[in-house]
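Notebook B, p. 112. Complex prediction, attempt 2.
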Amino acid sequence: MTRPSGTHLSADEIDSWLAGNLASEWQQHLDHCQECLERARAEREIVDQLAGLQLMSPTTGFADRVMAAVTLPDPFAIRSIQATRRRLFASRKSLAVAASLSLILLGSMAGSIVWSLTHPQTLASIGHYLVLQGEQIAWLSLRGVASNLMEQPWYSGLQSLISNPGRLAVGSAVVSSVYLVGILALRRLLALPTQQVAHAGI
Amino acid sequence: MASGRPEWGSLTDQEVVLLARSGQDAAYRELIRRYERPVFALLFRMVRDRELAEDLAQETFVKALNAIDSYRPEFKFSSWIFKIGNNAAIDHLRRRELDTLSLDGSPHAETPEAMQATALQIGARQESPLDTVEAKELGGAIEAAIGALRPEYRSCILLRHVEGRPYEEIAEILNLPLGTVKTYIHRARNELRDALAHLKE
């Protein structure tokens, strides 16, 4: 930048001087112009005084008072539609990614619908095959569980208990009693305390 | 970050905001720790009342942190929090200006002195002992001169020369054109220089 002859430093040049990056031709002017030098020095004095102002802090507990009035977001909560939309439109890149994903999703949905409508026979045979396979797997699993059960050492005892009605009745009564006692114990555990607990008010 | 706990010093404001958005209480506290002093100092020098400045600072942080989802990371967090704080201060000063609006004095008053004596000053207040303490805290000729500046000049000069914010950021905070910010700062410096020169005399 060339300096017009006969002109003094402008406010911008004084700013540059304060920041220590005044152009050399202006610096030469400043070295010889008493008026500009006085102005610049006066500005520096003000800036130095401002920079040296006392640091200030709020009273103790400020952060706690702020936090008491702030609602923290739940990380597991589903984001509101508004927040999602804001994030979606935050930049061109996020918008382009979202648009591409939507296109892929809609395209594949439309493709699968069209294919299903034009190939009903293939779809039916695939469905039939899957049902057959499912039935076979379920039957094999059931047989496996049953044979495993019959190989257990306590199986013969259980069989004799079921074959005798008297023993079956006694066994059922014992199981029911244990269940009832368990329920009562659980209710007692979950009941609210009737007396105030000394340390609960912390 | 080490063993799941972030080392706050190594994180940028934007990274801390991301952690805050995921619901981390410590990230909110870190943002408060980083900005409570500069925001409070700006507000105190704007409104010149400690209690009020603290209320406004609290209001600023609560507003900003409750709306953390609306913060756009392409802007500086400092600009955002200063903008909210400065708006709170300017709103308060405007309200106070309306409250202290002097109503005309008695219609029977014939001299200007009589009109002034009978004028109704809504909200005008006497200086309390607390005000005297605050005046001392804000003591010094330079503080008094800052207090006499127009609020817009005051915001600009404080952000530039006390908080050390660049012109571009101040323009963003105050929502003003860059040229206007520069003009306000130069005028504010001139006014401060004149005010201090008068005091020296």
